[in-house]
Write a structure and sequence with these properties.
Bound molecules: pyridoxal-5'-phosphate
Helix content: 40-55%
Shape: elongated
CATH topology of the largest domain: TIM Barrel
Largest sheet: 8 strands, parallel, barrel
Order of helices and strands: HEHEHEHEHEHEHEHEHHHHHHH
CATH class of the largest domain: Alpha Beta
Radius of gyration: 28 Å
CATH superfamily of the largest domain: Alanine racemase
């Protein structure tokens, strides 16, 4: 039975291509990149593509996914994105090299767990710069760090923030400057070096590309733009990204679908649905003309249908099937009867063209 269930087509090579563009952009500005794998549940093909592209770190929100990354053979540092649950402290220090934190109580537990396992766990203290998703308030950062510095098995390596996530606060130079200023204050109050400033996620890339990212920001956690190849703010192509190389391909996304089609055509990969239907129609005609000829002949002679009408019918059906999937005849696409007819044809012919 042909499989008509919805499916997600993933192109790891295209994701690797996106990753290389982002890495080029970030590394030129002295920024390291933690590639976020959570949206694909650390799928091995996608994670491997990111590793091949040369990302600096892998980041995920689930311990199980971090385990999968280690099983894949990743030797890079792994970052836990989700604020650790106190009950998972032991797992967190075991499977992640660095975690993002917003609670002093959890930091204490992480330190105990790390001491128990004999490891030094690195943490980034998250600060809420207005997006209201995570982080402590900036005016509490100094107190939190004063306590963190007393925890023996923790290494507080820096400050981080997350923007354009819950509250829709767009990253700006001013927001990044707030993080930098806070580090000055915390350094002066605690003596901690705090070398890492983790400025945010994909939403920071447009600021970076526009030249507005202060040089002190040296780490970003990038997920969506690596997967989709476009800005999460306005969906425009990422700067430095060749047009038509987006990995987006949803049916409702005309630009993305066109990009996918042109990419497939140029890369000589699997033909697009429109092309497949054209091929199917051509093959049906060819087959009809050869071993299907007898059947045609029987129909024509017994029903007294003129040969020209048969060919006209075959050509019309082939044409409609082809047009069904292309954008050039919107009226054909909208007609319910045409849709139903084409659906029947597709169902009947699917086993043939899925084999190609
Ligand atoms: C804490 C954190 N940082 C970064 C990211 C990556 O965000 P984006 O996919 O917009 O790059 C996420 C979400 O995936 C996240 O939860």
């Amino acid at each position: 039975m042909p499989n008509f269930s919805p499916r997600l087509e993933i192109y790891p090579q295209r994701i690797a291509e996106n990753a290389r563009v982002i890495l080029g952009l970030c590394h030129n500005h002295g920024i390291q990149v933690a590639a976020v794998t959570k949206v694909t549940c650390a799928h091995p093909a996608v994670s491997q593509a990111l590793l091949d592209a040369g990302v600096d770190m892998l980041a995920d929100s689930r311990i199980e996914n971090l385990q999968a990354l280690r099983r894949l053979g990743a030797t890079l540092p792994l970052m836990l994105l989700r604020i650790p649950a106190p009950s998972q402290a032991a797992e967190v220090v075991r499977w992640s090299d660095v975690s993002l934190n917003s609670s002093v109580a959890t930091l204490r537990l992480l330190s105990q767990a790390a001491a128990f396992h004999g490891v030094l766990h690195r943490v980034i203290l998250m600060v809420d710069l207005g997006d209201l998703r995570e982080g402590i308030w900036p005016d509490r950062a100094v107190d939190a760090l004063r306590e963190a510095v007393t925890l023996p098995a923790l290494d507080v390596i820096g400050l981080g923030c997350n923007l354009a996530c819950y509250g829709g606060v767009i990253p700006t130079t001013e927001k990044m400057q707030q993080l930098i200023d806070l580090r000055h204050t915390c350094r002066a109050a605690t003596g901690l070096e705090l070398p890492v400033l983790c400025g945010g996620n994909s939403a920071n890339l447009p600021l970076l590309a526009a030249g507005g990212m202060p040089p002190e920001i040296n780490l970003l956690r990038i997920g969506e733009t690596m997967l989709l190849g476009c800005s999460v703010i306005d969906r425009s192509a990422l700067a430095g990204h060749p047009p038509g190389r987006s990995a987006r391909g949803g049916r409702g996304d005309r630009a993305g679908t066109q990009a996918l089609r042109s990419h497939r055509a140029s890369a000589g990969r699997m033909p697009s649905a429109g092309r497949r239907n054209l091929w199917t129609a051509a093959s049906v005609s060819a087959l009809s003309a050869t071993w299907g000829g007898r059947m045609w002949w029987w129909i024509i002679s017994h029903q007294k249908i003129p040969v020209s009408s048969c060919w006209a019918a075959a050509a019309t059906i082939s044409f409609l099937m082809w047009k069904m999937r292309s954008k050039r005849l919107p009226s054909v696409r909208k007609s319910p009867s045409t849709l139903a007819m084409a659906r029947c044809w597709r169902r009947a012919l699917q086993p043939m063209y899925t084999k190609w």
